[in-house]
Amino acid sequence: MKKFNFVLFTILPLFVFSQKIRVFVLAGQSNMNGFGFTKDLPDDLKSFKDVYIFQGKAVADHEPNGGVGKWEILKPGHGHQFTTDGKTNKHSDRFGPELSFAKRLKELYPKDKIAIIKYAREGTSIDSLARGPFGCWDSDYFGKTGGNQFKHYLNTVQNAFQKIDFQKNEEVVMNGIIWMQGEGDASYTEEIAQNYYGHLVTLFKGFRASLRDAEVPVVIGKISDSGKDPSGRVWKTGELIQYAQEKFVAQDKAAAIVRSTKNYGYGDDPWHYNSAAYIDLGKNFADEVQALIQKKEAVVGK
C-alpha cells in the first residue's frame, strides 16, 4: 500500500455561523459494524434528536454500488445485516458503537448537530494478502474490477456530502475518524501482521486527505481476543497488531486508542463483542475523540 487515490471535497464558509454540524467517520470491519442486539438497548439509546447517520452500502471489493446510502435520523439497526440501496434503509436487529457514541457526543456538544458517516465491511483486512473473500482497504489493490474497500469508503463519503442538508447558518466541521479493525490482518501470517503499522500510516493519510485535513483526530479501537479457541487464542498474530496500533497512536499527535476492549465480553461466537461491550465502546470512542478535538481547537484558537 504505497500510495492512495482520493476524492477531495470541502464546504467553504462565507458567513458567520450560529451552529456546528460535527461530522464523524466510523469505519472498519465487523466490530465496527456491530453485533449487539437491539433488544438489549436501554431506552436512552433508542431515539435521538439532531443526530444523523449516512451508512454506505458495504460490498465486496469487486462489487458495484459500494457506498450508496441515505441520510436519516439515527436509530437502532445500523449493525450486522443493515442494508441500503441508496433510496431505502433496511434496519436489522443489531447495533454497533454508533448509538452510545452519538449519545455521549450530544452530552458533550448539546448545542451542535452530530452527523455520522459509517462504512464497515465485515472480515476485511488492510493488507490485500489477507483479504480472503471479504476484501481489503489497500487502495493499491484493484482486483478484478478495480475496486477495494477504500474506494467504497470514498464513495460513501462523497455520496454523504452530496446529499447532506444544512442551513446557511450551519458550519459543517470534520471532527474525527473512528476506526475498529485489525482482526482480519491478525488471522494470517506474521509477515502480514508486521506490515500492519505501515499500512495504518498510509491508510490514515488517505482518510485525512479525503477530508482535506491532515490533522483530523483519529481514534482506534484496540483489538482483543476472546480466547474462545482450542489453542486459547483466536487471532494468531493479535499481539503484533496490538503493538502496531499502540505504535501508531504513540507517533501520531492527533490519534488516540481505546483499550477497554480487553475487558469486553463476547456474544455467541468468538469474534464479536456482546451488547454491553458495544455500548461501552461507543462512549469511550466519544470521550477520546472529544479530548483530541479540544486539543486541536485550543491550538487553532491561539
What attributes does this structure have?
302 residues; alpha/beta; Rossmann fold; 7-stranded mixed beta sheet; two-stranded antiparallel sheet; 7 helices; 30% helix; globular; disordered N terminus
Itemize the secondary structure elements and their pairings.
Blueprint: E1 19-28, H1 30-33, E2 36-37, E3 51-55, E4 72-73, E5 83-84, E6 89-90, E7 94-95, H2 98-108, E8 113-120, H3 149-163, E9 170-180, H4 190-194, H5 196-210, E10 218-221, H6 238-251, E11 255-258, H7 275-301
Parallel strand pairs: 1-8, 1-9, 3-8, 9-10, 10-11
Antiparallel strand pairs: 2-7, 3-4, 5-6
Helix pairs in contact: 2-7, 5-6
Describe the 3D structure.
The protein is of the alpha/beta class. It has one domain: 3-Layer(aba) Sandwich (Rossmann fold). It has seven helices and eleven strands. The strands form three sheets. The protein has a seven-stranded mixed beta sheet with strand order 4-3-8-1-9-10-11, with helices on both faces. It has a two-stranded antiparallel sheet with strand order 2-7. Strands 5-6 form a two-stranded antiparallel ribbon. Mean pLDDT is 92; it is low at 1-15.
Brief summary:
The protein has helices at 30-33, 98-108, 149-163, 190-194, 196-210, 238-251, 275-301, and strands at residues 19-28, 36-37, 51-55, 72-73, 83-84, 89-90, 94-95, 113-120, 170-180, 218-221, 255-258. With 302 residues, it is an alpha/beta fold.
